[in-house]
Amino acid sequence: MNNVAVQQPHRSAWPEVSELFSGFPSWAGLRPMFGKHVIKVEDDIKDGKYVLQAEIPGVDPEKDVEITVRDGVLTIKAERSEKKESNGRSEFSYGSFTRAVTLPGGADEDAIKASYDKGILSVSVPLKESDVPEKRIPVEPAG
């Protein structure tokens, strides 16, 4: 009989740093970037409307912001560019932002309105009552 001892690698009682964060989503996915600034987006349903607000300071809403809707998905695209000149030097900074959200059921895509005031883009989508009733799906036992 062969008595070969297999050594297990020594493992600290403390997990490695990468293991601590393995259950969290990617930070990149949580922070949409617009140049150097994080864009804050809030949405809510109130008074029969779906309302979305996005902080997009420093843009010309007529030239730099595009809002589209297709198949129940609202997409906001914004782009900002800035040029600074001083002492014979010039600096350019630019960034773009795209955010797509699925509209709630009953969204009236033909009546969407958007406005921009003091760096806040507001999009309002009226909601219609759904004429399709909720359908219950029975769960059957396997086997």
UniProtKB/TrEMBL annotation:
CDD domains linked: ACD_sHsps-like
Pfam families for the chain: HSP20
PANTHER family cross-referenced by the UniProt entry: HEAT-SHOCK PROTEIN 20 FAMILY MEMBER
Family: Belongs to the small heat shock protein (HSP20) family.
Annotated protein name in UniProt: Uncharacterized protein
Source organism per UniProt: Mycolicibacterium duvalii
Lineage: Bacteria, Bacillati, Actinomycetota, Actinomycetes, Mycobacteriales
